[in-house]
Amino acid sequence: MTQPHLSTDANLQSMQVGSIMRKVKSRAWKKQRYFRLQDDCATIWYKSKKAGNAHSTFSISDVEAVREGHQSEVLLSIADEFPPDRCFTLVFRGRRGNLDLVAESAEEAQSWVKGMRKLIENLENMNERERLDQWISDWFKKADKNGDGRMNFKEVQDLLKMMNVDMNEHHALRLFTMADKSQSGTLEDDEFVLFYKMLTQREEVLRIFQDYSSDGQTLSCRDLEEFLREGQLKQDHVQQHSMELIEQYEPSDTAKMRQAMTIDGFQMYLLSPEGSIFNPAMLEQHQDMSQPLSHYFISSSHNTYLMGDQIRGHSSVEAYIRYKHTYTHKHIHISTSQYPVILSIENHCSVEQQGTMAQHLTRILGDKLLRNALEGKGSDLPSPEDLKGKILLKGKKIGGLERSLDGVVEDSLAAEVSDEDDAAEIEEENLHNDSIRRKPKQGLSKELSDCVVYCKSVHFNSFKHSRIHSKFYEISSFAESKAKKHMKDAGAEFVHHNVRQLTRIYPNGIRTDSSNFNPQEMWSAGCQIVALNFQTAGMEMDLNDGLFTQNGCCGYVLKPAFMRSLEKRFDPEHPEIRDGYRPVTLTIKVISGQQLPKVNLKEGSIVDPLVRVEIHGVPKDQARQETRHIDNNGFNPMWHETLTFTIHVPELALVRFVVEDYDKTTKNDFIGQYTLPFSSLQQGYRHIHLLSKDGTSIPPSSLFVHIRIKEGT
């Protein structure tokens, strides 16, 4: 379904003719491939010269960004062979590797770079209806085996299986005949779209629509107001809001003129970002960014340079670029976040090498590297707002901030630097791994020390010692097991400590497979820098993504008020003992699912989906409940089941929706998930747009739910 404005673009026309380019995997692996943009302007097709008929494809929607020139490690390694104006990199969503390409000429490279960017931009600007049409059209092409642009009933049946639909043959044939307007016994592209739309008519949405419609045909402004009040549990400005919804989502001009909404407009609204479970206002940056750094949770990765496990993992600059550049799904874009980045230095260098490191840091980072304390910030950490555009170094420091302000410097050998906290903790835990050896203590170079301002690494003694002796700019690091012990023994003191000082938590040394710990436990104690292995997908990264999707994805989330005050006492183990304790009841009606992806690619296999809702928060709030499974229906399963939770500390809770394929003999297969902060939930009828295991969206897979939040239990 090519959009008219795309078909006349010269770059896209050139891409549709195709180009021979070198696909580069390393300095030694550079192979010619023929690349071509398909006529749908949505798919890239490519093959090697030798592979006969074998070819590969990828969708434009899989590509997150295009980098020009030598902007990947691979292309940098061949910079002497090919000039930058012939090189470009396609960066894929999620954790899929880059595609590095060298065109035959600079003009050809430009054609692909500009063309790809136009296609990506076009996709980002599509509305829900256009996305759905595109998705249907993609399926049509997959199933049209002989490529004649038509599908007979047998091909349609095969396609329904591919789409995870187990449909009664008689019902499918009846719809097929109704959609075959030309009465040719086959469906053409547009007829197939009609067939699909009849197939996907949402009975449960229609029922809600009819419950509120006065005439059974449309929702008047007044009907819509009633729906907003009763269905969506909204109180404010409903009259104005109902008019805005008709204006924005109603496709029929006739209905618009009558200030009414048809079922199509109603469904479009429910599928839009406004109808999503995540409150759009919370997606924007809305929090106060002028408080001390210690008052924020800060998105943090551990050993960012590793692409795999901790011992054999390929060490790569690419991992940093990915973290900076993509941080999958709607994640943090450090390249676009204006707030400070904290680099944790793991120092294994001699004094001389440290000096060289300091020179590199100063030269490469320039003015971005914070070298001096800010004026007027004597006794408190500066705020993210104060530190906009700055990079802070966390590491050992000679003397304190006060001494460097006075120009006093100690002898460089007087301050010893160990191999950073991780190695020290590993030794304490007696985890003697061949790959991790402690080196003798080193002196610290003044040059490197001077690069550390507000994040001086210090060894933690006790909370009492910190209360008396610690400085606000000192930061301690704990392995996850140590942090858990402190939380059990002195939870309230840990929270109190984290009001004034930064704390970093990192995975236990035993996690050589790059697995992760549950970050929620650490956030419940007010720990700000909870470092996870971003390269490892799973529940822990889902929680991290869920927390940091709010507040403009800027990497900083303000802690609740009771975790920012030295006067208040909060113990995560006993949440009821605090001022302002107000538990809430969360009621979730899981109504239906839409077009869930197949997980088992075996012929004829259809999923048996169930939904699990998990609450992650303080220990008392940890809970999970699930629906029954539905046999053989990934297309439009209906549950209509209600799950109820009591939440004691809603300010810290995250809600995770997981869809699994039930299997009575083995572990259920993962289908999709979505995680968000409790504080970002929208009440009422909402769609949850599911994400894959690595956090990328899988449209149009969704859940349809009703959410109600009530104070008290």
From TrEMBL:
Subcellular location: Cytoplasm; Endoplasmic reticulum; Membrane; Nucleus
Catalysed reactions, semicolon-separated: a 1,2-diacyl-sn-glycero-3-phospho-(1D-myo-inositol-4,5-bisphosphate) + H2O = 1D-myo-inositol 1,4,5-trisphosphate + a 1,2-diacyl-sn-glycerol + H(+); a 1,2-diacyl-sn-glycero-3-phospho-(1D-myo-inositol) + H2O = 1D-myo-inositol 1-phosphate + a 1,2-diacyl-sn-glycerol + H(+)
An annotated GO cellular component: endoplasmic reticulum
Membrane topology: Peripheral membrane protein
Domain C2: 571-692
PROSITE patterns given in the database record: C2, EF_HAND_1, EF_HAND_2, PH_DOMAIN, PIPLC_X_DOMAIN, PIPLC_Y_DOMAIN
Alphabetical UniProt keywords: Calcium, Cytoplasm, Endoplasmic reticulum, Hydrolase, Lipid degradation, Lipid metabolism, Membrane, Metal-binding, Nucleus, Repeat, Transducer
InterPro entries in alphabetical order: C2_dom (IPR000008), C2_domain_sf (IPR035892), EF-hand-dom_pair (IPR011992), EF_Hand_1_Ca_BS (IPR018247), EF_hand_dom (IPR002048), PH-like_dom_sf (IPR011993), PH_domain (IPR001849), PI-PLC_fam (IPR001192)
Pfam families noted in UniProt: C2, EF-hand_like, PH, PI-PLC-X, PI-PLC-Y
Entries under CDD domains matching the protein: C2_PLC_like, PH_PLC_delta
Domain PI-PLC Y-box: start-end pairs: 448-564
UniProt name for this protein: Phosphoinositide phospholipase C
EC number: 3.1.4.11
Molecular-function GO term, any one: phosphatidylinositol-4,5-bisphosphate phospholipase C activity
Lineage of the species this protein comes from: Eukaryota, Metazoa, Chordata, Craniata, Vertebrata
Keyword Metal-binding part of the UniProt annotation: yes
Domain PH: 13-121
UniProt key word Nucleotide-binding: no
Cofactor(s) demanded: Ca(2+)
Domain EF-hand: 131-166, 167-202
Natural source organism: Astyanax mexicanus (Blind cave fish)
GO biological process: intracellular signal transduction; lipid catabolic process
